[in-house]
């Protein structure tokens, strides 16, 4: 049993043995890798997924569980619409265990500038056929004490239970014929003059001509071994859940709710998932310096809530500069990246909850956990073939909002991996953008 201080993740019984070969190998058992494997297996492909720890041990079980289109970068909207259709189909197939509920998502407009951004986003999204509105917050959250009246609101957005969703998708992938090997770290992508030839793992090599890298926070160092640069950093975000609410308390609000420094959603266990959404911590590592200029414009807009520090990761990642063995040790030491949550950031969460919702005063915290979010400079993912390594497809950098968009990303990654035409134009997500231009982030929220 791998120690894990995060949410209790539903178990997945995968394969014990590594196959000698596979048509496609997927690296990473988070929402991106698992939904890719599911799509591939259902389309009749021979797919093997490698996960160094357990399915959904990292970001994919630690997130808030918001399935959101609200306020997204406009470039992501076609993909998030595809994802919503996939969530609906998967929910119909799996049933209530997925916890998928279209309860709406609301971002309270807390300043005239933010209200203006929200209005402009609604106009853009409506033009793209998405149901979005500026709503009266009191009707959505009758228990909320606030001076602000309006919110950006998407009634079709919702939530799912992260600790169950990805394992349930993984079970479907296995049922469709995918081989999922847990406790097996991929160390390197092997190649010849034509491209990928296999994946070297801690348990031997799997021969393949096609690989999808969906390694979350670990993608950049693995790519570097193949001479590919991906500007990707990690930030720590801290979350907690509360004890169950009474039926009366649960009436305080309906949608997933952002109040700027507080994010809330209802859970199937009748508690709340709550976070201090304004605060993240980043360790200074060699990549912080390597990619400083690419990240600076985006960092500026995050600075009020961004804390930089030196830590264990600083020393560990310095070791990666001196050869692959150190990275291989890290991959097997951290079967689950399980950072200590930021106690300070969380200490204010229940106080804020009580201030904003008097009926929820006195709720106890039942569990707290941390999650390392992988971010790109423009805060949108990389979904791209690697031009310098034929056969490699990259799906990573989902920058804090990959859970909701995940099933859509899995669908297009499966297309890329098999040479089919993806359902969505992926030009904005190509890896080369970081080389060709100065990628810009869009801030609508
Ligand atoms: C606190 C927090 C809150 C969030 N809230 C939301 C939200 O409300 N809504 C939303 O849409 N998104 C949210 N996100 C973001 C979302 O969780 C991520 O974008 C998404 O889960 C990323 O999925 P992934 O598959 O890319 O990565 P991960 O889930 O991190 O999975 C990557 C997997 O790859 C494995 N791996 C890596 N390298 C190797 C290797 N070499 N060999 C084998 N295995 C390997 C890892 O062990 C890991 O299991 C949040 C994230 C956090 C941390």
UniProtKB/TrEMBL annotation:
One of its GO terms (cellular component) is cytoplasm. GO terms for molecular function: D-amino-acid dehydrogenase activity. The keyword Transferase does not apply. The keyword Nuclease does not apply. One of its GO terms (biological process) is D-alanine catabolic process. It comes from the Bacteria. Residues 24-416 form the FAD dependent oxidoreductase domain. Keywords: Oxidoreductase. InterPro entries: FAD-dep_OxRdtase, FAD/NAD-bd_sf. PANTHER family: D-AMINO ACID DEHYDROGENASE (PTHR13847:SF280), SARCOSINE DEHYDROGENASE-RELATED (PTHR13847). Belongs to the DadA oxidoreductase family. This is FAD dependent oxidoreductase domain-containing protein. It comes from Marinibacterium profundimaris. The lineage of its organism: Bacteria, Pseudomonadati, Pseudomonadota, Alphaproteobacteria, Rhodobacterales.
